């Protein structure tokens, strides 16, 4: 990783953060992700992780 | 991760924004990768080309065709790995905004899977919201990545 940023200047970071805050990009994806959250995707993922953990402990 | 990749930058006080330069047949294209909080510990991966001083800084609909896709994919995989290494409690949500982008993002994960599965758990989400362990032969609506827990 570079120690001196030539792309991510403070101006560009501020520009990206402003667009994010205002929902200029990623709006549809975030709305869909929230829909999927309502369908319990994180709980399903945690259940699969727990299953893996049990399997690892039983080996 | 041993695949050839670009050096990337991130803002030292803000690990949510990363950038790198893709160098190929279309010239030098600034690529931005941004992790957007959806809910606590749950982040959306947004990426696209930096458009300069335009009002919308990232065009995430654009496909650059710069002839360096494997290198770009490897770089994005490294950025995801860095983000999750720094934030092991987070889950990253990846979804393309077009069928082409969905397929591309899945290829990023599939092509770098051997490196990623050492440190991360990968999951696929189908259109009904059903989650399963990632299988490279399946097509998914979205992907979830989380740092591996040590048992």
Descriptive overview:
The complex is a heterodimer of chains A (59) and B (151). With 59 residues, chain A is mainly alpha-helical. Chain A has one domain. Chain A contains 3 helices and no strands. The longest helix of chain A is centred in the C-terminal third of the chain and has 18 residues, at 41-58. The relative contact order of chain A is 0.06. The mean pLDDT of chain A is 83. Chain B is α+β, with helices and mostly antiparallel strands and 151 residues long. Chain B has a single domain (8-147), classed as Aminopeptidase. Chain B is built from 3 helices and 9 strands. Chain B has helices at 69-86, 99-111, 113-119, and strands at 8-11, 14-24, 27-39, 42-50, 58-59, 91-94, 120-125, 131-133, 142-147. In chain B, strands 1, 2, 3, 4, 5, 6, 7, 8 and 9 form a 9-stranded mixed β-sheet that branches. In chain B, a hairpin with a 5-residue loop joins strand 7 (120-125) and strand 8 (131-133). In chain B, helix 1 (69-86) packs across helix 2 (99-111). The longest helix of chain B is centred in the middle third of the chain and has 18 residues, at 69-86. The radius of gyration of chain B is 15 Å and the shape is globular. The model of chain B has no long low-confidence stretch (mean pLDDT 86).
Keywords:
heterodimer; A: 59 residues; mainly alpha; B: 151 residues; alpha+beta; Aminopeptidase; nine-stranded mixed beta sheet; globular
Tell me about the biggest sheet of chain A?
Answer: none
What percent strand of chain A? under 5%
The CATH architecture of chain B = 3-Layer(aba) Sandwich
Task: Return Rg of chain B in Å.
Answer: 15 Å
How would the blueprint of this fold be written?
The complex is a heterodimer of chains A (59) and B (151).
Chain A: H1 10-21, H2 27-38, H3 41-58
Chain B: E1 8-11, E2 14-24, E3 27-39, E4 42-50, E5 58-59, H1 69-86, E6 91-94, H2 99-111, H3 113-119, E7 120-125, E8 131-133, E9 142-147
Parallel strand pairs in B: 4-6
Antiparallel strand pairs in B: 1-2, 2-3, 3-4, 4-5, 6-9, 7-8, 7-9
């Amino acid at each position: 990783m570079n120690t001196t940023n030539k792309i991510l200047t403070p101006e560009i970071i501020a520009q990206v953060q402003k667009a994010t805050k205002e929902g200029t990009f990623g709006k549809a994806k975030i709305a869909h992700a929230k829909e999927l959250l309502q369908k319990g995707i994180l709980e399903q993922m945690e259940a699969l992780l727990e299953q893996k953990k049990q399997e690892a402990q039983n080996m | 991760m041993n695949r050839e990749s670009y050096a990337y930058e991130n803002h030292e006080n803000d690990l949510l924004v990363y950038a790198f330069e893709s160098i190929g047949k279309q010239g030098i294209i600034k690529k931005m990768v941004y992790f957007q909080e959806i809910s606590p510990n749950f982040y959306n991966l947004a990426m696209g080309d930096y458009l300069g001083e335009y009002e919308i800084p990232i065009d995430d609909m654009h496909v650059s065709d710069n002839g360096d896709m494997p290198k770009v994919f490897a770089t994005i995989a490294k950025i995801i790995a860095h983000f999750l290494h720094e934030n092991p409690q987070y889950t990253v949500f990846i979804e393309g905004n077009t069928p082409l982008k969905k397929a591309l993002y899945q290829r990023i994960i599939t092509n770098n899977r051997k490196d990623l599965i050492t440190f991360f758990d990968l999951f696929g989400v189908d259109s009904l919201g059903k989650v399963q362990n990632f299988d490279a032969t399946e097509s998914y609506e979205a992907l979830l990545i989380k740092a591996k827990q040590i048992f």
